[in-house]
Design a protein that fits this description.
about 15% strand; Rossmann fold; about 220 residues; five-stranded mixed beta sheet; 2 domains; two-stranded antiparallel sheet; alpha/beta
Length: about 220
């Protein structure tokens, strides 16, 4: 008999309070465990979005697998575990190479060759998705550069307006003052003090110091 931890999830407190979705998932896991002779040790519950795997209930379940308390994890549906193909791939790599992953709705059971095949396909899809996203990002950046659009944080003295890099008048004034005083031989500290006296501030709204003056003048 395989010992497993059940995991159920709803996205909102309202769904949790109604109890319908959680109860339906719970019943599915209990029936599935009885049907396939699984030892259901307990059922972990989360009432948060599936956008991240950093959920208390899920982490408790995964920890039980890592420590050897349980031999597998059972969910009513894979999207209860995660909605992210990438996260699913990471979970497969970290936890389900040796432990069992079982899903009621998708009829996945990695204790069988067929179940492991499905899981490997999902892992491959995850890797493919990561590579495609990387390629699309790289292509998009090259296109922006080719058509003259700004990419990344603008250099001091400039700002981005409607995807175009233009001069920032205030920052250009600051640069002009810095250059003028540097030609006169003033120290960076003295220049920073002069900028503060004239009412200029950094992008974060703080007073200039000698390090900041050194960076923008570089």
């Amino acid at each position: 008999m395989t010992s497993v931890i059940g995991y159920i999830r709803v996205s909102t407190e309202q769904q949790a309070e109604s109890g319908c979705s959680l109860e339906a998932q719970r019943n599915k896991l209990i029936q599935y465990a009885n049907l396939y002779d699984l030892e259901l040790l307990r059922i972990e519950v989360d009432t948060v979005s599936g956008k991240t795997i950093e959920r208390e209930g899920l982490q408790n379940a995964l920890n039980s697998i890592s420590t050897g308390e349980a031999e597998g994890l059972v969910v009513a549906k894979l999207d209860r575990l995660t909605r992210s193909v990438r996260d699913l791939g990471d979970l497969i790599d970290q936890y389900f190479q040796n432990a069992a992953l079982l899903s009621v709705s998708e009829q996945i059971d990695t204790r069988s060759a067929g179940g492991r095949l499905v899981l490997n396909v999902l892992a491959s899809v995850s890797q493919w998705e990561r590579e495609v996203i990387g390629e699309r990002t790289s292509t998009a950046l090259r296109h922006k550069i080719a058509v003259g659009e700004h990419v990344g944080r603008p250099k001091y003295g400039f700002k981005v307006v409607n995807s175009e890099l233009i001069q920032d008048e205030t920052e250009q004034q600051v640069l002009s003052i810095v250059r003028r005083y540097r030609r006169k031989g003033l120290t960076l500290k003295a220049i920073a003090k002069e900028l503060t006296t004239q009412g200029f501030r950094t992008r974060k709204g703080t007073e200039f110091n000698h390090n900041q003056v050194n960076r923008i003048a570089a």
